[in-house]
Amino acid sequence: MCKDCGCSLTEHTHHHDNGENSNHNHHGAMENIHANPQLNDKKTVDVIKKILDKNDQEALHNRVHFDEHNVLAINLMSSPGSGKTTLLEKMADLTPFKFAVIEGDLETSRDADRLKAKGINAYQIQTGSACHLDAFMVHKALHHVPLEPIDVCFVENVGNLVCPASYDVGTHINIVLVSVPEGNDKIAKYPVMFRAADLILITKTDLLPHFDYDLESEKKDARIIKPNVDIIEVNIKDEKSIQKVIDWIEFKRRMR
Ligand SMILES: Nc1nc2c(ncn2[C@@H]2O[C@H](COP(=O)(O)OP(=O)(O)O)[C@@H](O)[C@H]2O)c(=O)[nH]1
Ligand SMILES: [Mg+2]
Ligand SMILES: [Zn+2]
Ligand SMILES: [Zn+2]
Ligand SMILES: [Zn+2]
Q1: CATH second-level architecture of 71-255?
Q2: % helix / strand / coil in the chain, to the nearest 5?
Q3: pLDDT digits (tens, 9 = 90+) for 36-77
Q4: Pocket of ligand 1 (CB under 6 A)
């Protein structure tokens, strides 16, 4: 167990320990860099500082936790209301793998409560005013989410198509949802988010007859931003479409 926080890694440092005996400590690593004259010019140090950004260090640490338990961790991102929690609720009845969910919202535990009602272990992070999750928040949440009994851990990020894409939280895969009622210009307008996607879900396709929405043009925008990105159309009432998402995740799980 870690010295202070009780998680099961001993060989890696924590933000909440004092960094002794640690080769993952940010400051320790920077000291080593300063000791090397070849890397001692300001520009190089600044670049490396960025690489060793504290959040990325913590994300790496979270990933070690997931990997130790052979858990595939998936970051679910989208604007509010695109259908992240509904998809997770629906998948609870259908997945061959066991999963838990770390939920991120500014306020309330409503999403975690919805999932618990389906028998899924869910832990709610309330970010207060933060519009994204960071690796430290997810690490704290991991203290409440046992990884032994699960195969997949979803992180449902704060509803936001902008900054969650810039914060590695230690997950392995990004799934980004975009729903029909949002209009078919969102992928082009938020390229940073969709470039980060391993899988794009175009959700609420049952509403296509009611919206002036060009599905092909949205898919084309996605492929301009990321040529080989996988895209699945999802309608929550169509179990086959949910099954496609599950099969995609199963494939990724087996590939590891
Ligand atoms: N028509 C339709 N509504 C959906 C679908 N998926 C989700 N919704 C609805 O969209 C709303 C927001 O969904 P939610 O899962 O809470 O979105 P989140 O904020 O991304 O977690 C809810 O009222 C859902 O019932 C879908 O495939 N079709
Ligand atoms: Mg939600
Ligand atoms: Zn830890
Ligand atoms: Zn810990
Ligand atoms: Zn943010």
Answers
A1: 3-Layer(aba) Sandwich (3.40)
A2: 45, 15, 40
A3: 555 568 887 777 566 558 999 999 999 999 999 999 999 999
A4: 78, 80-86, 159, 203-204, 206-207, 234-236
